[in-house]
Amino acid sequence: MATYDFVFSGLGLREWCDKDATSGPMTMAELMGKSSANADGSAPAVSLWELPFPSLDALNKACPSFARTRELTKGVEQGFLNVKDSLKIVLDPITQPLSWFLEVALYTFQTTPWWIMIPILLALVYFASKSMKLVGFVAFTLCFLAFIDHYNYAMQTLAIIFVCAFLCVLLGVPIGIAMSRSDTMQRMTIPVLDMLQTLPPFVYLIPLIFLFSVTEPKLYGIAIILYAIVPVIRLTDLGIRLVDKEVIEAADAFGMTKRQKLYGVQIPLALPNIMAGVNQTIMMSLAMVVIASLVSAPGLGVLVLRGIRNLELGVGLIAGLGIVLLAVILDRVTKAALARVNAASAASKN
Amino acid sequence: MDNDIKISIRHLYKIFGSNPAGALEHVLAGMTKDELMDKHRHVLGLQDINVEMRDGNITVIMGLSGSGKSTLIRHLNRLIEPTSGEVIVDGENVLDYDEKRLRRLRREDMSMVFQHFALLPHRTVLENTGMAQSVRGDARADYEQEAQKWLDRVGLGGQGHQYPHQLSGGMQQRVGIARALASNSPIMLMDEAFSALDPLIRTDMQDLLLELQGELQKTVVFISHDLDEALKLADHLVILKDGRVVQQGEPQEILLHPNDPYIVDFISDINRARVLRVRSVMEKTDKTPDAFAGEVAPDDTLESVIALSEGDTALCYRVMRDGAQVGTLDMKKLVRALVPTSAAEDGMRARPT
Lengths: 350, 353
Prior knowledge:
The complex is a heterodimer. By secondary structure, chain A is an all-alpha fold. In chain A, about 80% of the residues lie in helices and about 0% in strands. The longest helix of chain A is centred in the N-terminal third of the chain and has 43 residues, at about 70-110. Chain A starts with a helix and ends in a 5-residue tail after the last helix. Chain B is of the alpha/beta class. Chain B contains 16 helices and 14 strands. The longest helix of chain B is centred in the middle third of the chain and has 18 residues, at about 200-215. The interface between A and B is medium-sized, with 23 and 30 residues.
């Protein structure tokens, strides 16, 4: 009847197969097959060309007791739902501060009047870059966004990015340092980083939605941090590993402790790389903040989403332009800060 | 010349590979470096090294690249752990030290100068010079004066505020030396310290080192691949080849009596007149010669005596130390000493390669 009948008959499992057949819902293929079989009145002959791969579904056809693929996905889901509650007990308190940070930041950025907020931001830009040209550019961009009534959305986006990028650095740099110190740690961490970087961002929104309520800011906070933390970890690790071996040897030869070596030699010399990682992290959190608007992250992403949902072309495009402008600002400012760090340390350029 | 022994290396072996202890047994059983590489994929870095370094002397360890000299010097402060053997400094075996004691050794008893300077690029020259003290935990105000003193001493008094990359290579290595001196440690390890400098500056630095050494009497371990440099600096010369000590002793002695074709190859190229000194070729006697053309000091080079005699080989000189005669020097004997050691018919260069 089915292609792989002989396997189970041959193994003498026929009885087990028919004993408690899983009578789950039919697969689409089965349904199709059934309708065509009904039309002909006979089972279709299977040629070698159409030999199905012995997959779960194909084997199930021969032996109804055999699990089907849908049971695998269902099992994963069930497994997650089972641990969900206990996971939540642990994760909820740990991540709660993230919600507070985001709420405070959003509140601060939105309630501070624009005529205080914009000068503060400009002062920050000047502090980071020491370049009046850049300050002028940022001032122009912010005023433009405010002029077209996107100021509030832009501030929400900025608030989220500030909090998330800050936390990324706070967590990512120590992880990177740990990786640079131990090869085992590096071997274990790199697959996780690869996964975080390649997993489509939507995919890790799904379990997060199950874990936390959609109204909590930490939901999108976690999503952004998971997505954006990777570069700062990688580049911290790389930066420390790239520090001149002879300089490290000198530090050892003069009897530095591990801590002295870390703060006195490795981090200062890795700083240009770490800063490059921070730049990447900020850019990636900006990318993610748009996707995170699917799970109630406020900001320009909401407008983009509205543009897509209601096919409001203009709204979507203008909001998109706003995001681009923010991206350019953040990129230029962090790059300028990076250039200053590079000039100051002027590492091994002689 | 008979100072106390400061550092003594005994039966030191170093094998690189996945199972050094296992490979050591093969080596002790008589396996050679090449066999060990072929059969067990382990590199024999150092093989039964026995060297004694005296207090206040410059010991030069010389060998070509790959001879294990940089590996050897790193055993003294345990930047590299040996496979077996002992390194005894001031009567204590360094290899028995725990981490804390080892750190004290590195902070207080030994300082190191590196081939590529290894200065901290993000700190000023002055801060680099005070590195040893700042590592010990001294406040900047406490070590600044000391660091400045040593910077002045190496001729970089005005450069304290600059960053290393703003200095030339020679100046950077001066900072490296000032850094090592400022630590006030009795032992100085110099790993090819002058090899990255160009020849003129190198001579300059050698003179600086000899001048400082005359003043400070540190125990210096100097690594070099340059025989001229080694002969100029060494009180005690150790020649390494393939991880073994081929010959060690007073440089003049090695020059006059090389015991290995490898060394003959090495010394056949050098200017013997510049390196050999009167004391090595003179005849030791306190009998005043019948006729002498003048007086020379035992540490004069033969080159200077030849210049003095204007090439006349019939002359004879009195060798005087502190106003008393210690020997006589016949110019004929001097010329004989200049004949190159019959250059290695069985040496490496004679061999077809």
